[in-house]
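Hello Y.,

Per our agreement to keep a running log of every chain we model this quarter, I'm adding this entry. I've kept the format consistent with earlier entries: sequence first, then predicted structure.
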Amino acid sequence: MLVSIEDIGKTELYPEIIGQIIRDDADSAEIQIMAAESLVKSYMRKYDLDAIFGTADIEPTHPDELVKKLVKVIATWYIVKLANANVNLELFRIAYEDAIAWLDDLKNGLVDPVLPYLPTEAGENNPGTGVNYYSNIKRSNSF
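Predicted structure for the entry above:
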């Protein structure tokens, strides 16, 4: 995982509050962190996720602090939703919505972070076209 429980304890959510929410069940917090990481990855399909997030065997070769912060923000929201233990839910909800809005902008090509794109078969990076297209179903009318 890109983010650990200790990393989340260094954010706006204090370690003792995390302990109260998860009742010292580290597996519960790790599930929320993995869910947050999966959500962030789902917005970043055109980027080299192995280089940014790493794998179970390999450390990330291109770690990015903004991506790490997004995972932390989303994970803290997921953890806080488990139980309200002396935290301002509105603050975490706004941070979560801001993170999702940025990820939407990333997906739609409105922001351009310095992240590696997926390599093509020839080995070079492929930024993609960023163009989406669709059409209506063809109709055939007869009178």
